[in-house]
Amino acid sequence: MAALICVGALYFVAGTTRGKTLAVFGIAIALVAAYWIAFSVPPFPPRAASQKLGYLIVLAGLLSLLFGFRPDLVRIWRPVIFAVVIGGLAWIAESKLKQGSYTTFLLTAFGGSVALLGLFLARDKPAESGAAVLASALAMAGIAILAPSASIAHMALAVAAATGGYMLWTWPKPRLQFGEAGVVATAAPLIWLGGQSALYSNASGTALAVACLIAFAPFVRGLVLGRVASRSDALRPIITGCIGGVIAAVALAIAYLNQSGNSGYGG
Amino acid sequence: MSFLKNSLIAVALVFGSAGTALSADTFKIDPAHTNTVFLVKHFGYSNVVGRFNDLSGSFVFDQENVANSTVELVIKASSVDTNHQKRDDHLRSPDFLNVEEFPEITFKSTKVEKTGENTGKIIGDLTILGQTKPATLDVTFNTMKPHPIPFYKGVIVAGFSARAKVNRIDYGMTYGQGGIGDVLDLIIEVEAHQQ
Predict the structure, then answer these.
(1) pLDDT for B4
(2) Cβ of residue B31 closer than 8 Å to a chain A Cβ
(3) Out of A141, B25, B28, B165, which could bridge A153 as a Cys pair, Cβ 3.0 to 4.6 Å?
(4) How far apart are CA B50 and CA B58, in angstroms?
(5) Contact map slice: B 176-195 vs A, CB within 8 A
(6) How confident is residue A262, by pLDDT bands cut at 50, 70 and 90?
(7) Could you tell me the residue range of the domain that residue B161 belongs to?
(8) Which residues are B161's β-sheet partners?
């Protein structure tokens, strides 16, 4: 709801031209609000990865605002996004890196980079990018619940809800852009959550790796079903969402099969 | 004659060591006879009872001047055990103890006060989830004497019972507020061997 209001407000207040690129900043505002409501303002300096995430979400939000103002500087923003995402992962992995445990961090960084590449391929398809992020966030939430880690699931669901709020403005009729601003506002927090899951919870690494492939759903849609769906703006995101949903289901099945025991524990 | 002399020296050493236990001596915790138990409210229905199966550490105990005593304890967070595998996995996750990121819970005393004949307070720094906050253990000194079972070869053993209340929110462990109690009752029963 917060994203729905913020995205719409930015779209109208900033004007239809500037508003198109700035509206995704509404997702970032909603995510910061979701974090603060659930976990309050994290202490400074932050110690735990979950506390660092609170600051990283703010950073991602500020970058999405900057990218929204200058969406034309794609060649600059993409390396910046890679650097910020990997740097954020390294910060989250700090205690593991200090212990000399590099493998999980490197695998997480690789998975995050792959997911970013997938979304960059779809930057001109805002509703499809949104559908892919939505499916990724739901997959991430499901994997975290099975881990179990409800706090990670909570933030992944917040990403899903905020992206859903954004999509209501740009689907079925395309109005907004996603671009690098959208990628940094949504995918970066998801990748950091994935890193936190991989590094510090019992989440299935294989399931997380599969979930990274959801980012390629728009690309796969164009590759496999391009002719079928290319004429309908409304249909493309649905097909993309379905492709992402199938990959998410595979990831969740793997996570379910890998979870340790099931004896009716609910909290 | 030589045997008698050696025996007398041995007896003197044993009693001598027992005597020195009255001054400041270092003790190492006996994990086989130490229990760390916690109770936390569960939606008001009952208290979940759990334990940490791995507590180690040592203390210096000066029975004549308790203020000279010091304590250092280390709990392996992953050793949490509530007799339910799924719940233990959740307690180890980032929602609660976050054991992969913060493998140890530590306590280091900063001040020891005598409050009664056999009671005292140990004030110190408790570190959970990387956050260090002051905490107080209410301690009862049970006994200190050579162990009666021959297997222990007369080692001096000290026994204490400690109680504390720990507010998990102070350490950033905020998950499940409202349902799962904020304050944990901590019970530590310790036996330690003189070094």
Answers:
(1) 44
(2) no
(3) A141
(4) 23
(5) 176, 179-180
(6) low
(7) 2-194
(8) B140, B189
Supply the pLDDT for residue B22.
Answer: 53
Cβ–Cβ below 8 Å for B93 and A43: no
pLDDT tens per residue, range A122-175: 777 788 888 999 999 999 999 999 988 889 999 999 999 999 888 888 888 888
Rounded Cα distance between A1 and A10, Å, is: 14
Using DSSP, state whether B34 is helix, strand or coil: coil
- CA distances (Å), origin B1, targets A2, A167, B8, B17: 93, 98, 11, 24
Rounded to whole angstroms, the Cα distance separating A88 from A151 reads: 18
For B162, phi then psi, to 5°, come to: -125, 145
Query: What is the spatial distance between Cα B59 and Cα B55, in angstroms, rounded to a whole number?
Result: 13
The CATH number of the domain where B57 resides is what?
A: 2.40.128.110
Search chain A and give the residue with CA nearest B85: A261
Which chain B residue lies closest to A201 (C-alpha atoms)?
Answer: B93
Q: Supply the pLDDT for residue B8.
A: 40
The residues, ordered by sequence, that sit 6+ positions from A18 with a Cβ below 8 Å of its Cβ are A69
Helix (H, G, I), strand (E, B) or coil at B66: helix
